[in-house]
Amino acid sequence: MTGALLLGAISASTVAGAEVLSHARWTWRTPRVAIALWQALGLAWGVATIGTLLAFALAPYGRGIAGGLLLLGGDTSPLGPLHLAALCTGVGLAAVLLGMLGYAVFRVARARRRHRELLALISHRDSAVPGTLVVDHPGAAAYCVPGVRSAKVVVSAGTLALLDPAELAAVLAHERAHARERHDLVLLPFASLRQVFPQIGLVGRCLDSVELLIEMRADDRARRHRPGRELATALLRFAAARPAVAPSGTLAMGSAEAQPILARVGRLMEPAPAHPAIRAAGLAAAVLIAVVPPLLYALPH
């Protein structure tokens, strides 16, 4: 029963940690570390919550989760009705989470495949933006279609008319950063979790926080090659132009919502990177959060 209590405490702590992190602003100073923390919290919550149910269900064996699962195929007589109910709930929750993640991957992959087929018909190359696809649309649009070997950066004709060459170069650097760091894979588990728990406000806030952090991370990568002011002015122009919603399965330059745009512009104009000690502590916390729950599966208790 000790294992169930420990895993239950970790599960509750990850929920509390997610609530705190969703309102934190220090994360904007080091988005890469904050993204790692979010991933660790999400993984730990799933593993700990399922583990709590399994640890309680398999407690009569006295061998912990891993040992109990090995004995489960033989004699189930030590398990009472409550233990069997917890076992079914834990296995069911694991199946739902993995199933919804798999479905999200399938749906996104299908949307990207269809969009690539559409781009092959309606897009063209432009010498002004080498390596980029241009779509003849008057609205402002800039996004990347992620992929292992076929990532594409797309801009609209309206974007070419809206931005000056320096701003356009900064936007393209931002989108290429999304593609290189595969930020789409960061978002998938959180988007899947929102599908499982659509009515829970915290889940939506978690996804919003991670979406903003990956935009800030792409901003930081773009700033390595272009001055931050160029990307900041491009963001403001985009927001004023009211860009259309990006196609499903893509990562766009950003929304027209005022708060995220102003937060990104502020940090681009006045960078304030986190102290190295904060980054090191954040990474150490992410590793600890992610590693401890699986270890409790293996330990007898």
Automatic annotation (TrEMBL):
This is M56 family peptidase. It comes from Actinomadura craniellae. Belongs to the peptidase M48 family. GO terms for biological process: proteolysis. Keywords: Hydrolase, Membrane, Metal-binding, Metalloprotease, Protease, Transmembrane, Transmembrane helix, Zinc. Binds 1 zinc ion per subunit. Residues 110-197 form the Peptidase M48 domain. GO terms for molecular function: metal ion binding; metalloendopeptidase activity. The chain crosses the membrane at residues 6-24, 36-62, 82-106, 277-299. Its cofactor is Zn(2+).
